[in-house]
Structures are given as structure tokens and as C-alpha cells.
Write a structure and sequence with these properties.
This protein is an alpha/beta fold and 442 residues long. Helix content is 40%, strand content 14%. The protein contains 14 helices and 15 strands. A seven-stranded mixed β-sheet has the order 2-8-7-6-5-3-4. A four-stranded antiparallel β-sheet has the order 9-12-15-14, with no helix packed on it. Helix 7 links the parallel strand 3 and strand 4. Helix 6 crosses helix 10 and helix 12 runs parallel beside helix 14. The longest helix has 32 residues.
């Protein structure tokens, strides 16, 4: 028995050569199969790789950011895709800012901008001094607003400043009824919803300013948007009697690329925004020029209660951008010259596309002398206010049938025969819009 076990042990320690060959063959076959699988996988990945694909180590946010930031001008137009021109996302400015490269880049160290408070003795205690300086510098260069004797209040976009202004101008004693907020037709589509969203007891939306009579209806706040969103025309106050009125002038589009700069605006409370001035809507910075210190303090208090100030990182970036714009005014291709020429080109393309087409009516504007360019210029608004003629009653639905998404005139308090269309989208989307519009016939 012992000798049998020893023989078995010896066989296990010294297996036959035929068994070793068998094991080697099986091992080689498995390795070759594994290598072939790897080669096939790599071939498939290379074959199916998209020009926008990103390595698997990139996060979802990075992939999304890469796609959003790309203008994708090399992608052939898809006739079936929906062109969204409902909102005023100013993507047309991307090309210019890409050219500027590092001139508008900033680096913020981890220990910087940590305090709630900013330096200086401004009423707006959270405003960065660099931003205040660049706001004044740019307005003085362009000549579109009086800055002397004004307090500057910074906000998270002009939307927050609009609400802060309503709060600051509204009567505060409890016995008073909510003050009425009005604006002339067609008014900015967000005014009614922004005014009534918080259901404030201080103010309420009242509709069309032209039908308001303050002798009969009492005190009011009138919103004057000039150039107007959506139709692009220059506006003034329209309420019949102006004895009990307070005014908010929204001049988001009073810049040389959109309209002639005929005079510096000189109002009690004026709103501006980086979004439409330079195209940096994602930075979310706006500013108000306020004459009355009491109003400026109340606006600041609203923002303090609402968000405890405004992002310093955004303010510093905005200051750098405004500095670059002002600096460019001394160069051959200034920012405003560049953007003006793009807008002029787009409006020429638009008018040529609908020339002789009885389906559509475009607004007509009169040229005026522009003090910034020192010659006559034509208004070329950021939005097209388009009217569908004939039997087309719902212009937005009609255009959607042609894969063009617009904003109905009903949102602006007027007939659905009108639509607002953004003129600020990418070159690709704008040219595709022009091609589709020119091909529409009944």
C-alpha cells in the first residue's frame, strides 16, 4: 500500500510529456482568444468614436460643458432638428471672446474673495471696487449713461435688480394698497410673472401703461424698456398723467451694436446687464445706476435679504471683461465695431430672406446719428419682432411646423400673429433659420 502511494506521488511530481503538451495548447488557445477580443473591442471603439467623444475618465459635467460650449460649426445642418430661437441666449459673441484668449482670463486664489464684505464705503457694501470702476469707465466711453452723481448697485443679473427696484420704490406703510406696475405694449414677456410671482403685498402687475390714468387709478411704477424688448423701438414713458409715477428704465439693449447712441441716459433708476452688453449671460451680473441714495440703500437691502450680496467671483470676472471691452475701443477692431458688423450682416440677410414674401412683415427703423461711432447708424435689435400675415393667426405654431421655435406675441400682451425671434444665436443656427424662413411659402 505504501509503495502504491509512492508511485502515485512520483507521477504527480513528474507528469508525462503528453499531459504537459495538452496543458500548454489549452493555455495558448485561451491567451490568443483573449488578445483577439481586445483587438476587436478597440477596433469597434475607434470605428464608432464621435468627434465629440470624451475619455471615460471625464465627468458627466465635463462632457455636457464641452458640448454646450462647442459651436459645432463643422456639423452639417439637420433639417429635422428644432431651432430654438425662443430665448435670447447671446451665443453669437463666443467667436470674438475666443479670439481674445487670455486677455479676459482671471485667476482667483483659494484665499481670495472669502469675506461677505468688499472694500470701500459704497452704499452697495458687497460691490467690488474694480467692477464699479469699469462700469463707470465703459459708460463714459460709450456715452450711453450719466454716471456722475449716481450710486451703483450690483445684482445677480438685471432680473434681481428689477425686483430690488420694485421693492425700493413701493410704499411701505401698511395702509396703502399695492402699487400698480405697468409697461407699454408689447412689454417684456417676463414682467408680469416676475412682478406677481412672489405675491407681494407691496406691488402688483397692472398691464398696459397706455391705458393707465394715475389721476383715476392712483400711484404707479412704469417700466420703460428702451430699446424695447421685443420690438426694438426706442421708448419713453406713455402714462397720460405723470403726477404720481415712479420709473424704472431698463436699458439692457442701449449699446452701439443694437441702436444709435444718441444721448447719455439721465434717469433716476436705470438697469443694465452684462448679458446683453458683452454676451456673458452665464456670469449673471447686472448693475443699476441710481440717483436717490435712499432708493439705492433699499435696493441693497433687498439683495442683502435675498442673497446676502452678489458673487465676488462673478464681479471680478465681469470687471475683467468690461476692462477688455473698454481697452478694445482704442483698437482697430473694437468689441462694439465687431458686434455691430455682425448684427448688420444678420439683419441684411434677414431682410433679403423675406423680401417679396407676403407671409411676413418686418419692423422698419429710421437711422440716427450715433455719438459713439460718429456717424449715422441703423437700429438692429437683438430680437426680430415678426408678424405673420393673411390667414396665419398663430405665428408661433406656424413656424414650429417648420422646426423654428419662437415666442408668441401673447406672451408680450399682444396678438399671436406676432412672434419674437432671437438674433443672437450661433452662426450655424442663424443661417439655418434664414434658409428655412426664405423657403416658407403658401
Amino acid at each position: 500500500m505504501a509503495s502504491g502511494n509512492q508511485r502515485m506521488k512520483k507521477k504527480m511530481e513528474n507528469p508525462p510529456r503528453s499531459m504537459l503538451r495538452h496543458v500548454l495548447v489549452v493555455s495558448l488557445a485561451l491567451n490568443v482568444s483573449f488578445i483577439l477580443r481586445i483587438m476587436l473591442y478597440q477596433t469597434q471603439q475607434t470605428h464608432h468614436k464621435s468627434p465629440f467623444s470624451i475619455s471615460s475618465s471625464s465627468s458627466t459635467a465635463t462632457r455636457r460643458r464641452s458640448l454646450v460650449n462647442s459651436t459645432r460649426s463643422d456639423r452639417p445642418p439637420d433639417k429635422e432638428r428644432l431651432i430654438n430661437l425662443d430665448h435670447g441666449d447671446p451665443r453669437m459673441y463666443e467667436r470674438y471672446w475666443r479670439k481674445r484668449g487670455e486677455k479676459t482670463s482671471i485667476t482667483i486664489a483659494g484665499w481670495e474673495s472669502m469675506s461677505y464684505f468688499s472694500q470701500g464705503e459704497n452704499i452697495c457694501w458687497f460691490m467690488e471696487p474694480e467692477l464699479a470702476e469699469e462700469v463707470v469707465r465703459l459708460h463714459n466711453l460709450v456715452g450711453n449713461a450719466v454716471t456722475q452723481g449716481r450710486h451703483i448697485v450690483v445684482g445677480t443679473g438685471s432680473s434681481q435688480l428689477f425686483l430690488a427696484a420694485l421693492y425700493a420704490l413701493s410704499p411701505t406703510h401698511h395702509s396703502h394698497q399695492p402699487i400698480t406696475v405697468v409697461s407699454a405694449l408689447p412689454y417684456y414677456s417676463s414682467y408680469p410673472s416676475m412682478t406677481d410671482y412672489q405675491k407681494s403685498g407691496l406691488y402688483k402687475w397692472g398691464g398696459d401703461a397706455e391705458t393707465y390714468d394715475d389721476e383715476k387709478d392712483g400711484p404707479y411704477i412704469e417700466l420703460v424698456t428702451s430699446p424695447n424688448n421685443p420690438d426694438g423701438y426706442t421708448r419713453e414713458s406713455v402714462v397720460k398723467n405723470k403726477r404720481q409715477g415712479l420709473f424704472i428704465h431698463d436699458l439692457a439693449y442701449y449699446w452701439p451694436q443694437y441702436t444709435p447712441i444718441s444721448y447719455p441716459s439721465d434717469h433716476d433708476l436705470t438697469l443694465f446687464t452684462l448679458s446683453k452688453a458683452t454676451g456673458h449671460s452665464g456670469t449673471r451680473i447686472g448693475w443699476a445706476l441710481v440717483k436717490d441714495s435712499v432708493v439705492a440703500k433699499k435696493m441693497t437691502k433687498f439683495i442683502e435679504l435675498n442673497t446676502i450680496g452678489v458673487s465676488k467671483d462673478s464681479q471680478l470676472r465681469a470687471a475683467k471683461i468690461l476692462e477688455a471691452v473698454s481697452d478694445s475701443c482704442e483698437e482697430e477692431e473694437s468689441f462694439f465695431k465687431y458686434s455691430y458688423e455682425i448684427m448688420a450682416h444678420r439683419w441684411r440677410k434677414l431682410r433679403a430672406a423675406v423680401e417679396g414674401n407676403a407671409l411676413f412683415t418686418l419692423p422698419n427703423f429710421s437711422p440716427a446719428f450715433c455719438n459713439f461711432f460718429n456717424h449715422y447708424t441703423q437700429p438692429q435689435p437683438a430680437f426680430l419682432w415678426l408678424k405673420c400675415e393673411g390667414l396665419i393667426e398663430d405665428c408661433a405654431s406656424f413656424l414650429r411646423q417648420h422646426k423654428i421655435l419662437s415666442r408668441s406675441g401673447e406672451r408680450f400682451g399682444v396678438s399671436p400673429k406676432y412672434v419674437r425671434i432671437s438674433m443672437l444665436d450661433t452662426d450655424e443656427n442663424f443661417m439655418e433659420f434664414i434658409e428655412r424662413l426664405s423657403s416658407i411659402h403658401l
